[in-house]
Structures are given as C-alpha cells and as structure tokens.
Design goal:
two-stranded antiparallel ribbon; about 75% helix; globular; 2 strands
C-alpha cells in the first residue's frame, strides 16, 4: 500500500516540483483541473467498468493518489510539451494517452486492475485520450484569457 502512495503520488510530485520550478504557474493553473477530470472519469469507471487494488469501502479513495498525483503531473507535462513543441497537439495527446495506457497495462497484467462489463485496454486508451483532450481545451481557454 505504501508503494501505491509512493509511485502514484509522492514520486510524481517530486519529479514535477524539480522539473517545474521555473514554470510553477502552469502547475498551479493546470493541476487542479486535471485532478477534477481524473476524479470524474474514475468515478464513472469505478462504478461501471473497473476496479483495482487497494480497494477501500469508499471506492473514491482507491484512486486518490493517482487523481491527486500521477494524473495531474502527466497533464502538466502534456501542457508543457504543447508549449515547447511545434508538433500538432493531437500528436502529444496520443503520445501521452499511449504512455498512460501503457502504465495501466502493466498494472492490469500485474493484476492490480480488473476490468468488467466489456471494458478493455482500448477503452482505457480512449478514456485517457478524452481526458487529455479536455486538458488541451482547458489549456487553450487559459491561453485565450492570458492566464497561461
């Protein structure tokens, strides 16, 4: 259980803090939104399509380190990649979707995640892609209003 918190929350934030000391504004603006997107998608998923270990009586607690740790960090990295790159945004969204899906696939093979009701790894990729698309549009709104 402690590894879950270390790899899902503490390590991602430590890396993000080291990486984004210069662009803290991006983290402050983007991380809360990415976290909300993660909470919403995981609430839908936990109630209909997947489950994972550790499991708590309140299923929202199961994804807490990821919703507050790994997913906001990856969302911030996506936005940072968009800011620095001349590549089309869809390339970065697909790239991050594949990276996140790959991490989940490892957890699936290790039997930390269980799918049901027809859910599969492709659906997982689509859910991550949807999340990253929402992050992209939020980022564009923040740019439009000179917040970022």
């Amino acid at each position: 259980m402690i590894n879950y918190w270390i790899f899902g929350f503490i390590l991602p934030w430590l890396l993000l803090i080291l990486f984004f000391r210069v662009n803290l504004k991006l983290v402050i603006i983007m991380a809360p939104f990415v976290s909300v997107v993660a909470f919403v998608l995981n609430e839908i998923g936990f109630n209909n399509f997947w489950d994972f270990i550790p499991r708590f009586k309140n299923i929202s607690l199961s994804s807490l380190p990821l919703n507050l740790g790994l997913y906001p960090v990856l969302g911030c990295l996506l936005v940072y990649s968009l800011q620095l790159s001349t590549r089309k945004p869809v390339v970065w969204m697909v790239f991050y979707g594949l990276i996140t899906t790959g991490m989940e696939y490892v957890a699936l093979v290790a039997k930390y995640i269980f799918y049901y009701n027809g859910w599969n790894i492709f659906h997982t990729f689509l859910s991550y892609l949807l999340a990253y698309i929402l992050v992209f549009f939020y980022y564009k709104v923040m740019v439009r209003y000179d917040v970022l």
